[in-house]
Structure formats: structure tokens, C-alpha cells
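Fold this complex.
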Amino acid sequence: MKLKSERHGTVVVIELKGKIMGGPDSTIFRDELKSHLDAGIKKVIVDLGKVDWMNSSGLGILIGGLTTVKNEDGEMKLARVTEKIKSLLMITKLVQVFDSYDSVESAIASFAK
Amino acid sequence: MKPTFVQEINGTLTLLQEYRQLLQKSMEEQPDDVQCRDVLDRLPLLENKLAQILQGFEFQVEFDLLRDTAMLLARAVDEDQVLSAILEGLKKAIPYDAAGIFLIRDDPDKGGATILAQKVLGYPKALLAYDRFRQKVDEGILGWVIRNAEGEIVDDVLADSRYIMAREETRSEIAVPIISKGDVVGCINMEADKKGAFRPDSLRLLENLASYAAIALDRTKENRQLVAAREIRRELEIARQIQINLLPHTAPRMTGYDIAGRNVPSTEVGGDYYDFISINSSDLGLVIADVAGKGIAAGLVMSGLRGALRARVEATYSISKLVEDVNRFLVESTGAERFVTGFYGVLHYPSGRLTYVNAGHNPPFLLSANGEVKWLTRCGPLLGVIPAAVYGQEFVDLTPGSILVMYTDGIVEAGGEAGEEYGEERVVQLVESLKGESAKVIARAIDREAVEFNRSRGELDDRTVIVVKRA
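Structure:
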């Protein structure tokens, strides 16, 4: 898994790319989140548009991330969720828990409301 | 003490020099003495010959030492034997008064890495007591040798600012680093009571021996690692046995039903769980669950889940409440990233009614005799994440001739890592084609086909299948 962060004002967009399968990926993501949270950024968008594949362990990374952000009184939303991930979220009923948006722009805009 | 071969040769050379002086003096007095001139001319030949013999001998000693050490290295398992042989053998090749093989150790309570004597000869006993022969890795001549990864000869230690005294009598020293796989791991050190006792040639011999020492040390480390790995494997095997005992040993038998379950973990200990719980003579609890992740960690959560579930089944009448309780238990006992997807249903044998809760798990399907497929979805989110999650319950009837299939994502996601997933549709088609077979055959076929589909294109996850046929 590859990871890239970009700040848009008070929002940070973390783009994930490749296969998300748990293991070392989880530490990479968590450390990245922590570094932004420590810097005072509370609005996080995870861009999943370039994710090839994700299994249940990979899902755990997103769940863990959400908990971490929430614990710091922040918010984490998902953008450009692929078909596979969408079906995973549906089966696990996490659609209730995660806010997903079709594009990064609309996700950023949702924070403004 | 009997003189050594080297001493005898050197003695003879000295004699020859005295002889030369005598002859030269004689030549001064009698310049025409032809015989005298003749002997004088031949003296250099003699001296060279003797020097060659000496060199040849020393070379032979070195060669023997290297060969013997190499042979010992090939035979010996004990690094101690090899290190002792090196120190003993060195005595013949390079005379010394004290020598030692030192290794670098990590010593947090001494403030970092230290050099520790592994094998020594000639040092006073008092020095070898625990604390005394440890020095910091950057101190002394040894420290210099280690830091610069280079051999060094010091002809007069008292004149060298780097020197740290370990032995009062020492006046000269020679040391080379022991380099294993590119890193300096220690050094071989020799000390003599007289100044300038060591020659530059000796560095080469010492360096060769140091590489043998490195091999001996590497081998011991590898052996230790092998033993440790074997221990871990043994523990894993024990854990695997324990886990096998937690899963059903046999499938329940009931007239009119054919039930089978199958579980294949991807590593010794897996995170999938399935169970048949005999609630009473007419009700059977069916469980299938998947702990996120693999290996021991997932296996431990799986055992906890099994315990929590089985403990509550008797006491809790409502399936929804049971799942809500188990969810809260999992939220409390696992970290944020650990979750479990699960499906729990109660089959009432006489009517064929299955009342169930699907907690975020891959939806089981019911294939009716007329070919209709119903997916058992809905109900609630996965377990272990949302503390106050609410779960509804649903029901479906297993009509005569229908087949209920439950599975974990290890089946449907097979192959997904490298491309296309095996997928739910293929499972349905397979079951349709094997309608007439026994539940056991169907369960095994589903697993086999998924594995075949994956065909080593990626790692396989834990896989579990339950098949319930109603006659």
C-alpha cells in the first residue's frame, strides 16, 4: 500500500493506493493519521479511488483510523469508494458508520456545512 | 628450556654473523688469504639459505595452523572449541604472553556496547572476574581496531595514547577485527612483554584466523536461532491442537437433515470459527464467524468469542439480545482495529425454520428445491466495533430439498489479491451442480474449488464452510 497526504486548508486528504491487506500497512496509516492529528488537523478524508483490493484486515485499518480520529474529537470520511469496498461496507453494515462521497471535492465540501 | 626451531635458526644466523666478523678481521690482517676470501663470499649464500628455511618453516606453521583451524571449523559445532584452538595454535605461530578473543555485547547497564572477553590465555585471573574485563567499545587499542575495522600493531604501548592497561607487563600489542557479514563483531588481541614483539606479516595470519572465528561465531548464532524457531513451531503446533479441539469434532445428526462443517486455517492457528450448539432436542444453534486477521492473535479472539457465545446461549432466549451481548463483549475485549463478522442462527428441526442474526458477515444463501436462491443478509453491523449496536433478527424456512450454505470470506475472496475473486455466484453454481451429493461432499468441494481458483496467486485466508441439507 502507498500513501500520500495533501492539506486543503483545515482538511487533510490521505490518498491510499494499491492493495490494503492489514499487517504493516496498519502502522503506516495510523502513524500518518497521528501526525496530522498532532498538528491540529481534525478533518480527515481517506481517498480510496486508487485502491486495487482490500480484504477484511484492510477494513480493520479504516475502522481503527475512524476510532483514532473520533477519539481526538475529529471526523473521518471516505471518498471515491470502489465497488468492492462499497459491498464490504454494505455487508458489514459499516455504511451506517462511514460517510462516503463520490469525489474528494464533495467530501471536502461536506465539512463546510 | 629447549630452544625452538626458530630460536635455533636465529642462533645459527647470529653465529654466522660472528663468524663473518672474525673472517673480515682475518682478511684485514691477511688480504691474500684466498681460502678466507672464498668462505667469506659463500657466507651470504648460507645466510640466505638459512633465512629461506626459516621463512619456509614459519610459512608451514602458519599454513598448518590455518588448515587445522579450517578442519576443526568444518567438524566442530561448538564455537568454544574453535576459539580455543585458534588461541592455542597461535602460540606456535606468533609467540605471545597474553591473547584473547573479544566480542562486542550490548550492555545497557554499562551505557551501551562493550567488548567482552570470550576466550583468553595469559591474563591474570583477577582481571577475568565479571566486571574487570569489560571495556567500552570505543576505548583502547581494541576500540580503535573495532571502530576502524582495521588491524593494528603497537610496538610500544606506553607511548600510545590509545592504550588502556589490562595487564601490567604488556609492552607491545597486535589486534585485528573479527568481521562477520560485513559488521565488526569483535577482535583478536595479542600482547607481549617486550616492545616491538609483533611483525607486520603476523597481521595477515591473524586476519585469516579472525575470519575463521567469524564463521564459528556465525554458526553458533544460527544454531541458536534454529533452536528458538523450533521452539516457536512447537508452541504453534500445541496452539493448533487446542484450537482444533474448540471446533466441532462431528456434525450433529438429525433425521431428515444432513449437516457438515469444514474449516481450513491458513496458518497453524486461524481466526475462523464455526460451531454446532445443541440447544435442546429440537433446536440447533448454527454459528459461523470470522475474526479479522490471521494467526495467533485472531485465534485468541476466536476462543474468547466461542466462550462468550456458548456461555450465553443457554441463558438468553432472544437471538438479537444474544448477539448484542456478544458484540459488547467483543468491543470491550479487543482493540479498535479488531472486529468479527458473524452469523448466528437457530434451526428448529421439526419445522425447518431458521431464525437468525447476520452481524456484518458474508450472507449465507438458501438454495430451494425449485432453484430459488435467497440471501440471508441485513440485521446489523459487524461485531466488536460499535458498542451500542442494535441487531434485528430474521427468519427463513428450510423447505424440503433445500440447501443452506454458510461460508467465510476466505472462500469467496480466493484469488482476489491477484485479480478476479472466486465470488458468491460460483459457490451457488457449484452447489446447484452438486445438489444430489452429501453435505460433506458439497462442503469439501466448495473449499477445493476456491483453493483451485486461487492457484497460488496469493495467500489464502482461513476458510470455513457449513452445509445443511433438508431432505
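The interface with chain B takes residues 19, 21-22, 26, 53, 55-57, 59-61, 63-64, 67-68, 91-94, 96-97 of chain A (CB under 8 Å).
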